[in-house]
Design brief:
By secondary structure, the chain is α+β, with helices and mostly antiparallel strands. The chain has 2 domains: about 90 residues, 2-Layer Sandwich (MS2 Viral Coat Protein), CATH 3.30.380; about 35 residues, no CATH class. It contains 2 helices and 6 strands; from the N terminus they run E-E-E-E-E-E-H-H. Strand 2 and strand 3 form a beta hairpin. The longest helix is centred in the C-terminal third of the chain and has 15 residues. The chain is globular and about 55 Å long.
């Protein structure tokens, strides 16, 4: 079980649904056969190459269905996805990761920046 908080600071539980190899799928309270509400985690072990110890590659994906208008003006359900992707060289410490996460958390706590990048496509802020 992974518990997240929504924008209203209410708990949103994600229960383990399926594990396949290096990937786990958790489903949230709104998940159904027709609506997605899932958190997907994946982590691939580092691959050594000579003296290079490799990088651990991990992804966290939040996928949620939403109703939107299509080109004809009809309401349709589409999935939206927000992902975090990491590639960390072997030897990276938890302090390094905590610092990176703190910086990204600060970026994501700036709604105007997130809107400019993700909704309007502005990359020069």
């Amino acid at each position: 079980m992974i518990n997240l908080l929504n924008a209203a600071v209410s708990a949103v539980p994600y229960a383990l649904y399926r594990v396949e190899g290096d990937r786990a799928v958790y489903i949230g309270p709104l998940h159904s056969d027709t609506l997605a509400d899932k958190l997907i985690t994946k982590s691939v072990a580092p691959k050594r190459n000579g003296l290079n110890l490799g990088n651990r590659r991990s992804d966290i994906n939040l996928i949620t269905s939403t109703s939107v208008l299509d080109g004809a003006g009809a309401t349709v359900v589409r999935d939206r996805k927000i992902a975090i992707v990491s590639s960390l060289p072997v030897g990276t410490t938890s302090a390094h990761v905590a610092e990176d996460v703190a910086r990204l958390k600060e970026l994501l706590n700036q709604p105007n920046v997130v809107e400019q990048i993700m909704l309007t496509g502005q990359i020069e802020l």
